[in-house]
Amino acid sequence: MSLATARMVPMANAIRALSMDAVQSANSGHPGMPMGMADVATVLWSEYLKHDPAVPDWADRDRFVLSAGHGSMLIYSLLHLTGYAAPTMEDIRNFRQIGSPCAGHPENFLLDGVEATTGPLGQGLAMGVGMAMAERHLNATFGDELVDHRTWVIAGDGCLMEGINHEAIGLAGHLKLGRMTVLWDDNNITIDGTTDLSTSEDIKARYEATGWHVVSCDGHDFDDIRRAIDEAIADDRPSLIACKTVIGKGSPNKQGTSATHGAPLGDDEIAAAREVLGWESAPFEIPEDVVSDWRGSTDRGVQARADWRNRLEQHGDRDEFLRRMAGDLPESFSLDGYIQSLIDEPQKVATRKASEMALAEINANLPDTIGGSADLTGSNNTKAGGIGPFTADDYSGRYVYYGIREFGMSAAMNGMALHGGVIPYGGTFLVFTDYCRAAIRLSALQQIRTVYVMTHDSIGLGEDGPTHQPIEHVQSLRMMPNLLVMRPADTVETAECWDIALRQKDRPTVLALTRQGLPQVRTEMAGENCSARGAYRVKSANADRKVILIATGSEVSLALECAARLEADGIGADVVSMVCTQLFDEQDDAYRADILPDVAPEQLLRVSIEAGTTFGWDRYTMTHGLRIGIDRFGASAPAGDLFEKFGLTADAIVPQIMNKLNG
Amino acid sequence: MSLATARMVPMANAIRALSMDAVQSANSGHPGMPMGMADVATVLWSEYLKHDPAVPDWADRDRFVLSAGHGSMLIYSLLHLTGYAAPTMEDIRNFRQIGSPCAGHPENFLLDGVEATTGPLGQGLAMGVGMAMAERHLNATFGDELVDHRTWVIAGDGCLMEGINHEAIGLAGHLKLGRMTVLWDDNNITIDGTTDLSTSEDIKARYEATGWHVVSCDGHDFDDIRRAIDEAIADDRPSLIACKTVIGKGSPNKQGTSATHGAPLGDDEIAAAREVLGWESAPFEIPEDVVSDWRGSTDRGVQARADWRNRLEQHGDRDEFLRRMAGDLPESFSLDGYIQSLIDEPQKVATRKASEMALAEINANLPDTIGGSADLTGSNNTKAGGIGPFTADDYSGRYVYYGIREFGMSAAMNGMALHGGVIPYGGTFLVFTDYCRAAIRLSALQQIRTVYVMTHDSIGLGEDGPTHQPIEHVQSLRMMPNLLVMRPADTVETAECWDIALRQKDRPTVLALTRQGLPQVRTEMAGENCSARGAYRVKSANADRKVILIATGSEVSLALECAARLEADGIGADVVSMVCTQLFDEQDDAYRADILPDVAPEQLLRVSIEAGTTFGWDRYTMTHGLRIGIDRFGASAPAGDLFEKFGLTADAIVPQIMNKLNG
After folding, report:
1. How many structural domains does chain A have?
2. Residue B310 domain-assigned (yes or no)
3. Torsion angle, alpha carbons of A585, A586, A590, A591, to 10
4. CB-side exposure of A334: number of CA atoms within 13 Å?
């Protein structure tokens, strides 16, 4: 039921006109890509994409990701033309202006129908892989009746050149995600000029080598585009469609050059393009028949959604499916009993092991989780609770062997979280947050529940040395907006942190966990998730309070040791476990003042102890407090020797406190 | 002049024995890789590698990088056996112990002959690409007589799976770096198990698609290894040699499994391996004839170095070549005159543009620089001073079109800096430090001069929105050890920062530069590089001093505006430009106390102003100071609207200061 080419052409030109005009009006933006891919997008959205603009959160809709996010006017045009409630034409007029949902790059939290925030290149495609994984997993869980959709990605040369592309397509190829299709805007142009300035790669051969099906088409020939998409659908591998396009297509003097990539075309050139395209409408006006053709194209999706709704209502798993897609935990889910058992029977284990113990409880009782590790399963302790591998042969599995692909893993987890219905977590060493930091930032910006299980969180990992020892990492992640960074001290806090992380529907969590064993510091205070306060008193001063020791993770037990020595000398010392600075900062004034009273250091000295940078700890110690930490790179040696070398022992710390008190 | 197999076998087994024994003694480490690659390494080092152990810094030596750095015992064994001054056998005995140069992963700053710090996977190979680029550039500059060597990399499956591999080999293939060879330890094993757990890729086909020559060999057959290396040398493309090996080769019960990857074999298994290998020496003892064969293998290199030395002494460019390899700037090099001219003629430009202006001076007068950008040349303003492209056809060029490969670019720059003879700089948007942060960390850890030109450094970039707007980046980089993070305020400071960066032989620099135009704040104080102090007073209080405004980059002019308003109300205000916190922290107490006197806020209020996170600014404002910044993600709008939205205007700031003063 394809429309005749004569009716398709103006549908595509509507995208071109809106893109030219919006960029011109904003005097900023990227017209080249939407104009170049307008024909491909028109075929995809009007004939293939399964969606219902009236119900943008329909669970079984196809997912569409504009990985080349700078071409944002493409998706804004498509959403508007197909009849989504937003963006309105007024929003499009205000492209890139304050308050408009039509931001410079598409933001998932501003517009329904924008499935992912894109712009940081390569990540959209990699999130698409995660969406396709979630789709297959939910299909294996709930069946074709409820879950049976595709993932479509539009990517540019930049997305394909980024390193994450290699990781993402390696994972997708290995997992045979045949319901994923990448439409590559093969226009031979990057910002700096033609692609041959910087690459000589045979992209199609590379994709084939990575387990992908590859097909090419003329990106300006509707029939050829249809043929290529049909071939992609027919193949059971993930597909790359190389769409040969002309960037800025329709701009007579600039098309095919990098001049159209990231700047307005200019009024004269837009006038000339209107000539060439035969587009006679005023800026931001679309002829009624074109609007009508675009709106009519969604009939398929509307019907499909109605059919699906009927199937859902009669489905035995209806409530469970809806619960999972809503992102709610089962009402029965609770770790309280488990945490009580930990308090009752103290034990000395590494927090990575404590995380494994918590996961055994969680995975057995919460079917939503999909775990994994970037080839450090035994070190990150991420496989627990009897979950089996997620493989091309068995998508019902809940454990992903991500391979040595930290960034790809993180982006895939973001894609899963965006898709919904699953709660992804994955592990690597904390120091390798540097490899996936750009994806962690997108977890935070997109307001999604991705859980990072980051082990080996300090010099306490020992012999692997400075390349593997985080120094600045925990602190530097704490300043990322909307991210919870948690560094628990023992089994109890680790379980509490997991409980908190799972209940964050709109923000991600980084768990920083030790390699080395830690004594249990929490042997009381059951019945309340103390970590949820961000910081709390693990021990109150016995003698007259002179000191507050503020520590995290492995250093909480060290702080307790210091406190014991101080108390023995008649110096009262609180010990505060600062599990999560962000959550502490969110507490009310009274609570914060109770834990950290605003008193001059002569009366009450605050001391921070963390086996990482001291930069920024002034925030909690106050200026004249004492900051114990490590402000250089680590070294290779057994952990005990390193804690001694870097002065993270009671023997080294207590005298400094005494000096300060007496100073 | 190959030795007979009967003499090669014990040479290789010496590596195996040392690796088994050192890991066992440390009770920690990775025996599998050195044992598996012992035969390949023996052929390479004894018959091909051009080196002279007595002169490890010989400029024309081949570069060898152990990208799979966890197999560090391989390089320690090779250095010891071929007669480098270090490691001694005592050092090897103390593998992974405190103070031993035989750290868990190879560290370039601990041992001559370790060309790069490796361990973070994929980066060794990518640094090898940079070394090969530097070699070709210096060859084009100084000719075959002085520069004519190869780059060899040993890489594992992890290095090949990491995203950076794609970027690195894409660059190397495009640039036709035919003197680079990667020996892939093709053992089908990763930490989690066999590689088919996580990948189905045809690696050889992928490399071929990326412009590489690929050859395979039996990694345990000396003749076959020689054949493959000869083929690699003969081909003018970069080569991948797939060395089919058995991980842990020689361990009868564990070889070929992930059990040998990262754990000691155990005493019993080591005894069994000694049987199998016919190795009768005690731990840490090598038979004299084996030592003799290893030492004899370096005769080629010793002779080559003597010949080279003769050529150098007679070479017209001798002094210049030695200067460049020593990393010294020409004595005549100075930006003083240029900076004076800036002070004389104030102008309003973006600091990215100011950087371009400085580079025009630098590149014209300092032949050492090799610039580039990750496909943002026109945005980063990195091409200046008349330098031409570095291409496969012309390696004398000094500008690299890195493509959309931020991480690969950064690692390549590290490789160039490690190679010596060149000073690499390269640009992308500051927010994309998240893509290359792991390489920035290796710049710092390796103590090398890599200069990162990071533009678009705040919400001041405007319409591109939150994905492109740094918030936490500047501050989070400041806490990385041994890294200079500089945020200059105008043309003068930008030139000063460039001068400082170029003179850091042992640490990298990140320049954070604006997209938007900035008024010139420095119109006096010529003759001294004020930025070298890290922070200095741009303006002293006129009225009675009550406030110190501490600002960086684009906010220095804003601080001056605030100060003018305060002074108009009779409130004296200093304005301090905090160009580089690290350099300021290194000043003596007297200087720091002069700039930021330790006085109670009631007497002297400190206010920080930076268009980024306020987290950590307590360090300079003191607890009861005022911190103006942005603690959430940005937004898409014109820059002026955003500064207003986020309260970074004098109208918004001055009342807060007044409140605080009156509070």
Report:
1. 3
2. no
3. -80
4. 9
CB contact under 8 A, B637 and A613: no
Residue whose tokens read 């290199």: B301
User: Which residues of B are catalytic, by number?
Assistant: 406
* B positions 393-422 inside 8 Å of A (CB): 401-408
pLDDT of residue A602: 84
Domain identity same for A511 and A539: no
Residue B592 to residue B601: CA distance in whole angstroms: 17
CB contact (8 A) between residue B618 and residue A618: yes
B107 CB within 8 Å of a chain A CB: yes
pLDDT at B549 over 60: yes
A542 and A633 in a single domain? The answer is yes
Is B432 labeled as ligand-binding? Answer: yes
Which of A 152-211 lie inside 8 A of B, CB atoms? Answer: 157-158, 161-167, 170-171, 173-174, 190-193, 197-203, 205-206, 208-211
Interface of B with A in 322-361 (CB under 8 A): none
Higher pLDDT, B191 or A11: A11
The parent domain of residue B634 ranges over 531-662
B157 assigned to a ligand binding site:
yes
ipTM: 0.98
Q: What is the mean pLDDT of residues A571-599?
A: 97
Q: Are residues A346 and A272 in the same domain?
A: no
If one counts every other C-beta atom within 10 angstroms of the C-beta of residue B268, the result is 9
Of the listed ranges A187-201, A405-419, B566-580, B609-623, the one predicted with least confidence: A187-201
Q: pTM for the complete prediction? A: 0.98
Beta carbons of B209 and A190 less than 8 Å apart: no
B562 shares a domain with B418 = no
A103/B407 CB distance under 8 A: no
Asked if A610 is an interface residue toward chain B (Cβ–Cβ < 8 A), one would say no
**Based on the domain organization, do B113 and B237 belong to the same domain?**
yes
Residue B178 has which token pair?
């035919």
Model pLDDT, residue B1: 57
**Contacting residues of B for A117, CB less than 8 Å apart:** 467
Q: Does A510 touch chain B (CB under 8 A)?
A: no
Whether residue A322 lies inside any domain: the answer is no
Q: Which of A484, A519, A554 is the last residue of a domain?
A: A519
Q: Which of A406, A493, A555, A561 is the catalytic position?
A: A406
Lookup: tokens for B365: 């007068």
What residue of B is the nearest CA neighbor of A116? B467
State pLDDT tens for residues B151-181: 999 999 999 999 999 999 999 999 999 999 9
CATH number, domain with residue B561: 3.40.50.920
CB within 8 A of A68, min separation 6: which ones?
A: A33, A118, A121, A124, A154, A155, A156, A158, A159, A185
A432 touches chain B (CB under 8 A): yes
Share of chain B above pLDDT 70, in %: 100
User: Would an 8 Å CB–CB cutoff place A97 in contact with chain B?
Assistant: yes
User: Is B502 part of any domain?
Assistant: yes
Residue B573's φ and ψ, nearest 5 degrees, are -140, 125
CATH number at residue A356: 3.40.50.970
Q: Chain A residue closest to B474 (CA)? A: A476
pLDDT at residue B601 in the model: 80
Based on the fold, state whether residues B499 and B601 are members of the same structural domain. Answer: no
| Domain membership flag for residue B57 | yes
What tens digit of pLDDT does each residue of B64-77 get? 999 999 999 999 99
Same domain, A270 and A357: no
pLDDT at A1: 57
Final residue before a domain boundary, out of A267, A287, A305: A305
Q: A478 — contact with chain B (CB < 8 Å)?
A: yes
Q: How far is C-alpha B474 from the chain's CA centre?
A: 18
For chain A, percent helix, then strand, then coil, each to nearest 5? 45, 15, 40
pLDDT tens-digit series, residues A433-458: 999 999 999 999 999 999 999 999 99
Task: Please report where in the chains the tokens 């939205």 appear, as a residue.
Answer: B645
- Statement to judge: residues B280 and B399 lie in one domain: no
